[in-house]
Design a protein that fits this description.
Distance between the termini of chain B: 9 Å
Radius of gyration of chain A: 18 Å
Radius of gyration of chain B: 10 Å
Shape of chain A: globular
Strand content of chain B: 5-15%
CATH class of the largest domain in chain A: Mainly Beta
Largest sheet of chain A: 7 strands, antiparallel
Helix content of chain B: 40-55%
Number of domains of chain B: 1
Distance between the termini of chain A: 21 Å
Oligomer: heterodimer
Structural class of chain B: alpha+beta
Number of helices of chain A: 3
Order of helices and strands of chain B: HEHEH
Helix content of chain A: under 10%
Strand order of the largest sheet of chain B: 1-2
Number of domains of chain A: 2
Strand content of chain A: 25-35%
């Protein structure tokens, strides 16, 4: 048990990146939950309630919604950025990222161009206009574009593209249809799903990539464990963007 | 400067495909590019030409 900060239970320290263990009673656990002193800092990252202090915003809201992240403006030049307020050590555990693109990929002007990215920097230059200008900062870039196109790009910590998948299908690229990316540890496998309906039971696997041995060495060692990861979004303006983002270790 | 991934995205927006890594040669491209849209395949020649065009 690590008692830093008065937490009851396990409190993995940011500095060491290592976990603790302890023995505690269910009664203590229950009371800790009731008093909101139970630390979920490193077990659940739930950004569903957007607009809270969990998000650090740069740019401006397009919709001022509690559940939708979208940018204002007619084009790409402005952007909204959402940063985890803690040290998410994203490649040190299995996790699931759920979200929904907010707009159908209709082939009509203004053409949609919505991105959600996991980045490895919280600097203001980390996300550019279309989330594609600072390749070296991104780990994953998910896109819903024109003509019902959807894609995923997985990039290593040096900026080299490791995996891309892309498809166009009007049954999938619909605003509100769930998308999901999972990272399985320790197999080091990313899997991408998109739904052809409005329920997560409609999810269909659309891509999968397992880090090679050398990539695992480079990304799952100290560099991966100590790497802070963040979520960024960008859209073309108006109601482009994403909604209902939940990023949780699993 | 654009790379081969950018070029494939540019010409393959309406296709269904997967690519591992950033192929620099035709052999690497053929080994790592999976085109799931047989009616509209993307070739190395096409991708390279688009890359040259993007970097002009």
């Amino acid at each position: 048990m690590n008692r830093q900060g008065g937490y009851i239970g396990i409190n993995r320290t940011t500095a060491s990146g290592t976990g603790g263990s302890g023995v505690f009673t269910m009664d203590a656990f229950y009371r800790a939950i009731l008093s909101e002193t139970w630390s979920t800092e490193f077990s659940v990252f739930n950004y569903n309630y957007m607009g809270s202090s969990k998000w650090s915003l740069q740019g401006s809201w397009g919709t001022n919604s509690d559940t939708v992240l979208a940018q204002s403006g007619a084009g790409y030049p402005t952007y909204v950025r959402a940063i985890s307020n803690t040290s998410q050590k994203g490649l040190d555990a299995s996790w699931t990222l759920d979200f929904q693109f907010n707009k159908t990929g209709l082939n009509s002007s203004p053409y949609p161009g919505q991105h959600l990215a996991i980045t490895k920097s919280d600097t203001s230059v980390g996300i550019g206009t279309s989330l594609s200008l600072v390749t070296g900062d991104k780990l994953i870039d998910l896109e819903a574009g024109n003509n019902y196109n959807m894609g995923i790009n997985i990039i290593d910590f040096t900026g080299s593209s490791m995996y891309n998948a892309s498809f166009s299908d009007s049954a999938f690229s619909v605003g509100g249809h769930p998308s999901r990316v999972t990272f399985d540890f320790p197999t080091a496998t990313f899997t991408w799903y998109v739904a052809n309906g409005t329920s997560t039971s409609n999810l269909v696997q659309k891509g999968q990539y397992t880090l090679s041995t050398s990539q695992q060495t480079a990304m799952l060692g100290t560099a991966g464990r100590d790497r802070d990861l963040h979520i960024g979004v960008a859209g073309r303006g108006g109601d482009d963007g994403v909604r209902n983002v939940v990023w949780a270790t699993t | 400067m654009a790379n081969i991934v950018d070029a494939i995205k540019e010409i393959g927006t309406s296709n269904n495909w997967e690519l591992v890594g950033e192929p620099a040669t035709e052999a690497e491209f053929n080994a790592n590019f999976k085109n799931h849209d047989s009616s509209n395949p993307i070739t190395w020649t096409e991708a390279k030409a688009k890359l040259d065009e993007l970097n002009e």
